[in-house]
Write a structure and sequence with these properties.
Elements: H1 11-45, H2 57-66, H3 80-93, H4 96-100, E1 113-116, E2 119-122, H5 139-148, H6 163-166, H7 171-182, E3 195-196, H8 206-213, H9 227-239, H10 243-246, E4 264-266, E5 269-271, H11 287-296, E6 298-299, E7 303-304, H12 307-315, H13 322-332, H14 356-359, H15 369-376, H16 378-381, H17 403-406, H18 411-419, E8 421-424, E9 429-432, H19 441-455, H20 464-472
Antiparallel strand pairs: 1-2, 2-3, 4-5, 6-7, 8-9
Helix pairs in contact: 3-7, 5-7, 9-13, 11-13, 15-19, 19-20
The structure holds heme C (3 copies).
């Protein structure tokens, strides 16, 4: 997964950096191979090899009962039906479907290819099918996978499965998720295998990754903070795994703990800086705007959720209760500001276009950004860029004061033009058509550069090659 810091360099630099990283990572992996053998042996034979994680399940349950009144606990479960309902809610908070549902007709049966810098990992089937799913897993197996990243036969799981965050989830909540998964229709489907290059096809190498990037353990509430804050921290750092996308990665692809929430790029999409910095992050947003964004995907005058964030909203955060969203916001408020060096907030750029005659060219030139904008975009966003329907759910948003158009890079804008926007929530079925098959790379570059110059951050430009490279991202 290609990640970088919040100030996004040009795409070539990114690609070069990824190559360098791949090389460094490969070298690192090779260097550590011998050491690894020792550590693997030590893991298996050394003292304390299996720590408290292998508590008998009854004891683990008892531990959870003790926690029943802390901030991480939700309403007590009376009946099995409640447990399953709570499990469904938590599975949504953890967005299991985003990765384990590749085909809507096969929910939770896996098969989604996830591209990493080391090759492709395909998500497994987690329906209760006994042969191809997790029907034969015990609760202890399931807890161990979620908390330690270890599969049923003791194999190491890849951190593309966010166990580094799920480790924080209480046993009680993990078992509720299991109870919910048990009620799903078993689907007999074996997803295709991974295609990872040597040495990354060696699962035991994850021992190293874990050494540098993983701390096993449940969320420990901070007694100095409010119950609301603790609930938010529990969700954000745990199930909701916001940092998987919003925190940049180090050389081993672990999260950079010194730059948490400061923004990162994955498969071309820039998950923006969401620290409290007023210029580079979301420090200027009100609580209501943040809640509105997470529950509907739109914060009028600030941002709309497209790409991976549209999925997060549609599959996960829209289902969270108002209290849980409030807790998430309370926690985000405490994230230390990190500046990416921007001179203005992403959502504070742009002016309406005011000279329609300039747009009415005598002859349509295939690569004139302004004319292409009027021909392809203005029916919905208006030739002035101010949109139609303003803040109504499902409106055609204004491109002025929009974070994608005012960002310090134009990646997401070009990706929105290539792939459109699709987001289904309780409020609206949001659909912007994809232009990837109608427009050429130079036309998309021309529209992108016109839109950032006129309605957004004029320093954000894209070359035709950069658009071509974004087109190949999955
Ligand atoms: C960001 C993507 C992502 C999300 C979100 C995600 N998973 Fe996974 N999961 C994976 C990948 C990738 C693997 C396979 C890892 C491997 O092959 O080593 C996996 C593996 C698993 C496994 C091991 C299955 C096996 O056959 O070995 C379980 C169990 C699991 N996930 C459960 C869940 C649950 C429950 C949730 C939601 C709380 C969830 N996952 C959310 C990507 C994800
Ligand atoms: C799968 C990756 C992913 C995950 C997980 C994720 N985000 Fe995002 N987020 C993104 C991307 C990509 C964008 C940019 C969306 C766009 O361009 O429309 C974004 C945008 C945002 C924005 C708007 C910023 C702006 O200025 O436009 C906020 C706020 C946000 N995310 C909060 C969160 C929170 C809180 C969580 C956890 C509950 C979370 N995100 C989880 C990828 C992710
Ligand atoms: C058929 C109507 C329609 C057309 C045509 C259209 N859009 Fe959109 N656009 C939308 C809708 C709907 C949304 C999503 C609103 C939301 O997220 O709530 C959107 C969102 C956007 C966003 C915001 C994305 C984000 O993540 O914040 C941008 C930027 C954008 N469009 C640019 C364009 C450009 C450039 C064109 C022309 C190439 C275009 N649109 C054509 C309807 C349209």
């Amino acid at each position: 997964m290609t990640k970088n810091t919040s100030r996004v360099p040009p795409l070539e630099a990114l690609v070069a950096r990824t190559r360098r990283r791949r090389f460094t990572v490969a070298t690192l992996a090779a260097l550590f191979s011998l050491f690894a053998l020792y550590v693997a042996w030590y893991e298996a034979h050394g003292p304390g090899a299996r720590r408290s994680d292998e508590l008998p399940i009854t004891q683990a349950r008892a531990d959870d009962a003790l926690q029943a009144n802390d901030a991480t606990a939700t309403a007590p479960t009376a009946a099995g039906a409640d447990l399953v309902k709570r499990g469904e809610y938590l599975a949504r908070a953890g967005d299991c479907a985003a990765c384990h549902t590749a085909d809507k007709t096969r929910p939770f049966a896996g098969g989604l290819p996830i591209n990493t810098p080391f090759g492709t990992i395909v998500t497994p089937n987690i329906t209760p099918d006994p042969d191809t799913g997790i029907g034969q897993w015990s609760d202890a197996d399931f807890l161990r996978a979620m908390h330690e990243g270890i599969g049923k036969s003791g194999e190491r799981l890849y951190p593309a499965f966010p166990y580094a965050e799920y480790t924080k989830v209480t046993d009680r909540d993990v078992l509720a998720i299991r109870a919910y998964l048990n009620t799903l229709a078993p689907i007999h489907y074996a997803p295709p295998g991974n295609s990872l290059k040597f040495p990354f096809n060696q699962r035991w190498l994850m021992v190293f990754w874990n050494m540098f990037n993983f701390t096993e353990g449940r969320y420990v509430p901070d007694p100095k903070q409010s119950a609301e804050w603790n609930r938010g921290a529990y969700l954000v750092e745990g199930l909701a795994h916001c940092e998987e996308c919003h925190t940049p990665r180090n050389v081993t692809q672990g999260l950079k703990t010194g730059a948490r929430f400061s923004g990162a790029v994955q498969a071309g999409w820039h998950a923006y800086n969401i620290t409290q910095d007023k210029t580079s992050g979301v420090g200027g947003w009100s609580d209501d705007e943040l809640v509105s964004y997470l529950s509907t995907g739109a914060a009028p005058g600030r941002a709309n959720a497209a790409g991976p964030m549209a999925e997060v909203v549609a599959d996960s955060t829209q289902y969270l209760t108002h209290e849980d969203l409030g807790s998430i916001v309370a926690y985000l408020r405490s994230v230390p500001p990190i500046s990416g060096g921007e001179s203005r907030p992403r959502d504070q750029w742009g002016n309406p276009a005011d000279d329609v005659t300039a747009l009415r060219g005598t002859k349509i030139n295939a690569v004139n950004g302004a004319q292409l904008f009027v021909a392809n975009c203005a029916t919905c966003h208006s030739w002035t860029g101010q949109g139609v329907g303003a803040s109504a759910p499902g409106a055609y948003p204004s491109l002025i004061h929009n974070s994608v158009v005012g960002a310090s890079d134009a990646n997401n804008l070009a990706l929105v033009i290539l792939h459109g926007v699709r987001r289904t929530t309780k409020q609206a079925d949001v659909l912007m058509p994809a232009f990837g098959s109608q427009l050429t790379d130079d036309q998309i570059a021309a529209i992108t550069n016109y839109v950032t110059r006129q309605f957004g951050n004029p320093q954000s430009t894209l070359t035709v090659d950069q658009v071509a490279s974004l087109r190949t991202q999955q």
